[in-house]
Every structure is written in structure tokens, then in C-alpha cells.
Amino acid sequence: MCEALAQVLEVQADQVKAEQEIEHAFHAAQLALLAAVNAASGVHGIVSQKTARVSELFVAAQSALHSCFVSFKIREQWSQWEAMMTSATKRDAEHLALFEKRVHMAAEHENPHSREMVTIQIELVQKEAGTGKWQKQVSELVSYEIPSDATLQTLLSMEALRNTKFHGRITDLNSYFATESDITQMHSPLAKLSEIKPGTNGARSLRLVLAD
Questions:
Q1: Better pLDDT: 59 or 106
Q2: Average per-residue pLDDT in the chain?
Q3: Residues 132, 97 within the same domain
Q4: Residues 90 and 125 in one domain
Q5: Fewest C-beta in 10 Å: which of 97, 152, 159, 166?
Q6: Are 128 and 98 part of one and the same domain?
Q7: How confident is the model at residue 164 (pLDDT cuts 50, 70, 90)?
Q8: Are both 117 and 173 inside the same structural domain?
Q9: What does the pLDDT average to over 114-137?
Q10: Cα–Cα dist 31/54, whole Å
Q11: Which of 54, 75, 103 is the last residue of a domain?
Q12: Of 133, 183, 174, whose CA–CA distance to 156 is shortest?
């Protein structure tokens, strides 16, 4: 985007006006990005008020950049960027929704009511670099004191706290518990732990796919 604007700037009749327009557009974008970074300082990373403010600033930045591209008669490049931003916005909205669910896990598993000891056979897997084949990192038999109606989100949070070696990768938004039938398919994060039936040894088996 910067390169596209820089190229057309050279052929503008009024260089000063063109530079001011570009400066305004990128100042708006800078404010939006700064707000997004600052939102991470809220409670548990994201708070609704800050998130709303970030959204407002991104809309303002998009409007300023659009005006800039139209003014310089490079609509085609703008259409390409707009399509990319729409796709990125959808992806980020999905990630934000999942992130906001995960940040409430701690409160959920701190609930002292309806707890019981649950034994989980957790197998951590990842894709092998270069081949794309699945490889097992570790398989452990772990017992948790956890609410009987806890979700897999809660279990993921507890496993991240327990497993210091893989903590960062477990908390990554791309990590997930795989379904029993297909390792590439994610169990619903809101599925109840009670829905996973114990095996003959009394343990519930789950495969946790680690983020790259």
C-alpha cells in the first residue's frame, strides 16, 4: 500500500497537497494500530470498551485511505486491498471471539462448586516440519480437579497452566482439541468434558494439536 501511494505521488501536480493527504491517511492508520496495541493492556488482554474504540479508529483509517486512493485514481489497487482487509477483518473477528472466550476460562475453572477428579489421557501432537505428517510429542495421564460440567476451553486453560514446556503453543489461538475421528477437525471449545466418554481404564482420551 505504501509503495502504491509513493509511486503515484511522484506524478501529482500539487506535491504538497498530495503529501498532506497521504500523511493524513497514514496518521489515521497509525492511531488505529496504536489503539489496537494499547487494548492489550486491558483486563485479560481485551475489554469491550477498548475493542469498540479500536473498531471506530479502523473505520476512520479505512475511510481516509480510501479517499487517498480514489484521489490518486488508483481504484484497482484499493479494491485489491479492500478485499484483503475484509478477509483479514473476518479472520481477526473470529480470533477475537475465540480469544474472549478463552480469557474467561480461568474464572470458570476457579469455581469451587461441582468439582470432581477427572483423569485425562492427553496426547500432544504437531505437524512435522517439511513433511506435514503428524507426530506425537508426548502422551500423559493427567488428573484434574475440575467442575463436572466444564468445557474443553476450561481444560485447555488448565493444561496450559500445568504444561510449562508447551505453555505458549497451547495458549496460541491455533491450538485445539481434535475430534476422535479426524485430527484436522476441532472439537467445539464449548463441548462439555462429560461428553468425552471414559475408556476402559477410566480415563478420557483427548488429542491436543499444538500450534506451529
A1: 59
A2: 72
A3: no
A4: no
A5: 97
A6: no
A7: confident
A8: yes
A9: 84
A10: 9
A11: 103
A12: 174
Examine the domain organization and report whether 114 and 201 are in the same domain: yes
Single residue among 73, 103, 133 that ends a domain in this structure: 103
Terminal CA-CA length for the chain: 29
Which residue would you say has higher pLDDT here, 204 or 63?
204
**Contact by Cβ (8 Å): 145, 155:** no
Q: Is 151 helix (H, G, I), strand (E, B) or coil?
A: strand
* 66, 124: one domain: no
**Total structural domains in the chain?**
2
pTM for the complete prediction? 0.47
The CATH number of residue 179's host domain is 3.10.20.90
User: Which residue range forms the structural domain that includes residue 136?
Assistant: 110-209
